[in-house]
Amino acid sequence: MQRRLIFKGLGASAVALPGLAACGTGGGGDVELSDEPVTIRMTWWGADTRAELTDQAIAAFQKEHPNITVKGEFKDWAGYWDALATTTAANDSPDVIQMDELYLASYGDRGTLLDLADTSDFLDTSGFEAATLETGKIDGTQYAIPIGAGMLASVVNADLFAQYGVELPDDTTWTWDDYAAIANELTEKSGGVINGTGLTGGTDAGSIRYWARLHGNELYGENGDVTLDPAVLAALWEYSLALIESGGAETAAETVEGQSAGLEGSSIATGKIAMTIAYNTQITPLLAASGADLRLIQLPGAVETTANFIKPSMYWAVSSQSEHPAEAATLIDFLVNHEAAADILGTERGIPANPAMREHVATDLDEGEQLAVDYLESATVGPAVVVTPNGGSGFDPTCQRYSQEVLFGERTPQDAAEAFIEELKTEIDAAA
Amino acid sequence: MTDTFAKATPATAPPASNPASPRRARGGFRRVRSIIKHALLILCVLVMLYPVLWMVVSSLRPNDVIFRDPSLLLNDLETGNYAEGWNAFADPFSVYLVNSSIVVLGAILGNLVSCSMAAYAFARLEFTAKRWWFAIMLLTIMLPIHVIIVPQYVLFAQLGWVNTFLPLIVPKLLATDAFFVFLMVQFIRGVPIELDEAARIDGAGHPRIFAQIILPLMVPALATTAIFTFIWTWNDFFSQLIYLTDPDIYTVPLALRAFVDAQAGTNWGAALAMSVVSLVPIFLVFLFGQRFLLRGIATTGGK
Amino acid sequence: MSATSELHNLGQGGARAKRQNKTAFLFLLPWFLGLFVITIGPMLASLILSFTDYNLLQPAEFNGLENFSRMLGDERLHQSLGVTFTYVFVSVPVQLGLALGLAIVLDRGVRGLAFYRSMFYLPSLLGASVAIAVLWRMVFGADGLFNDGLALFGIEGRGWISEPETALGTLITLNVWTFGSPMVIFLAGLRQIPRMYYEAASVDGASRWRQFLSVTLPLLTPIIFFNLVLQIIHAFQSFTQAFIVSGGTGGPADSTLFYTLYLYQRGFGNFDMGYASALAWLLLLIVGAFTAINFWASKYWVFYND
Description:
- The complex is a heterotrimer.
- By secondary structure, chain A is an alpha/beta fold.
- Chain A contains 18 helices and twelve strands.
- In chain A, helix 2 packs antiparallel against helix 14, helix 12 packs across helix 16 and helix 13 crosses helix 14.
- Chain A is globular.
- The N terminus of chain A is likely disordered.
- By secondary structure, chain B is an all-alpha fold.
- The longest helix of chain B is centred in the N-terminal third of the chain and has 32 residues.
- Chain A: InterPro entries: Bact_solute-bd_prot1, SBP.
């Protein structure tokens, strides 16, 4: 009996491991709503507020579709991806998946997400702008629907500027040189009590994309290959080093500490610096944590160029392993296209990517949300960025590692930039 | 190897007084020494407990103060964190405490029964390839969970156990926590074999020796196992994350992590408050359970 | 051990050994079930996967020894080995020494024993709590308590937790801080030493120090040995604390990149589960070797009562 069980156990894993990709519903013909009661699973990452609002939205959906039961599952960010990878590997993934730009191609390219063209009868995408939809496509296939939009911004603490008698910058004309000068002035006038700024990027994909565009470069090319010029990245790190050297920015140690502390523990939230870079939608938690007069202004160089871009804050996708793709698509349709859902969800997942919903929620915004929406509407938006290619999901930690080696003087910027880009290319080639 | 030692400590000794008592002169000196000892111990305790105390104090602070104040002084009391944390999710936090308790109790029961049985076999019985089985047992705990989890998930999914507590409890019933088998083996081997022999002469078989001689004598080991199982299971994150999908059966670690969202903001006050709350059961269990650590041969063997 | 088996052989002969096989099987039945139904299958699966290219989402493809040859040139792997070995060899002896020392002090009839034991144990209870990340920052951050303490002596602090040279040190401290776990096992072991041995020794006129050397220490060696094996295996597999404190990166600049953290990053972060499985089996070999050495060496210093 024992021997048979060994075989059963092993057989199960041996069969299921190779069997995954071929599963799922495949072609579009058989996607239709069931008359029977159906249960679908929906999963997302996020904290308590998101769980509460999403549960309410699910309840509203179930009222409209009495035969569909939705089981919501929430996880923290890191645990979410571990669980999603494990359940997908075991052919047991949830039906509706909250997706991130970093992982979209990793999952889409490997056949684990449904082509949403198959479910177009149930999920209407006509209300979205073409450029927005593009951010959910991999090689022309619509794998995901953007939920919300975010955009990089400069955050300034107007209280600290006033306290130390420094004039707020004119964000229609300012450059990175102006930014450095103002940062140095803040540190000087405060007598070293605060620093002008924290790190101005170079540790995450967003800030590097923006910097690259200012220099006529792009992080990824149209076909998903790495086109970032090492010299451009090195220049960004050199800029950071110079700012730390002059005292305008915090020390490397303080910067790194801030990176691992979350928004609430970051230096802009605790009032140790007066300027930083963040996504516009992060202003709400920053306001709450700092209790200061924080404002969103344009990034240096942004007004005169079209370097800044809209980043989909997250997406909805349907698993290709789903047995109920029609119901899953119907749920997504409700979440992104219906005012009843928008009323509940508001801007918690970012400013709605669907323009009609954005307009709808605009009437009822709190202070932070209003700041974020105003910023998005006033910003100069450049072309959409290429989605992180398959194999690039480790970008941010890898980038942090190399940037830390630079900041702590273990490598020269040029050397680190070359090694980083080399490693990134290797990962992406290996995944392709 | 044991024979050398047996000579040094004859097993049959006449009863004598407590070994600590013969010296009672120089009382004043002893008192000073005792005060110094306690002062040092209390200093150690304070240094060690600072982070824990800070956590308790911070759970009573408004959110915007938490990251700015490393001190232990509480200026304005903010008890709202507890109410907020308790009701942060669809279920009140008590649901997660109960779920964790179910998993923990199942795991403790499983470990106590299955590990002590296996330990008795390894410590007291002769059987074929014993050393190899022991080595295999230790090997099974040397692979990190991260590479086992996918095939294991496939296995439990086939059994229909996903989204139940079974994947978290059944393995314990089957002695997969080899550490505790090893721990108990070490303790059983510390029990004088003469006690077994005496029972055997009285006609007792192995089940009776195990149940009536060994088990009562290894209460400290059982208590240690219970306490450790409690703590490890209570804090275990990864397997609970993977196997529990329905929020209604989430456990404490899952709920605690779900407070943290680095992108959209974290209610640290509530997170710390619930961290404190989740510490209370383990602390109580330890306070209560440690009495059993003192039992065993120390009290019964000398009779 | 030898003495008892001799006794068995003398008394019962071969028939008894056979019967013990059956008895042993019954006692081991739960464990055998667990081994063959739950444990072995996934373990073998991971062994097979270590010879494949497996990205979790698509079928695994055999690639022979490629994963293992790749290890030779993998600088991050070498870094993680360095970090892990440093961690094991520094934190295990310090933690065990502290635990043993305090267990002995506390076992010697200190008034308020229960109080101290609970207090020393409290940090171990925090375990994998997310609060650890915040706590450790408040202690070892640039504005943390540790620097405040140093300032009292006029020493200028630094960002202990965020600088590559000192970050690992803070994690070692974190591990030492939880010395309550081995201490409890030591205490249980001390309590299990039959009082009659002390009584005998004290009749012989042995001093307390002599009693400690000739009674306490030898009889405690099985427990010391257990703690040593356990803590070494645990230290090699150390994951959670580094994961929480560094936010999963092993930073700053890979200075806290523990072996299992790297393995996890490869497996889940980079969808490289084939390589991660190979790394896991290398770890098993390393830990297995250390444990084997430990067991071999135990012949020379661990005393059993049977």
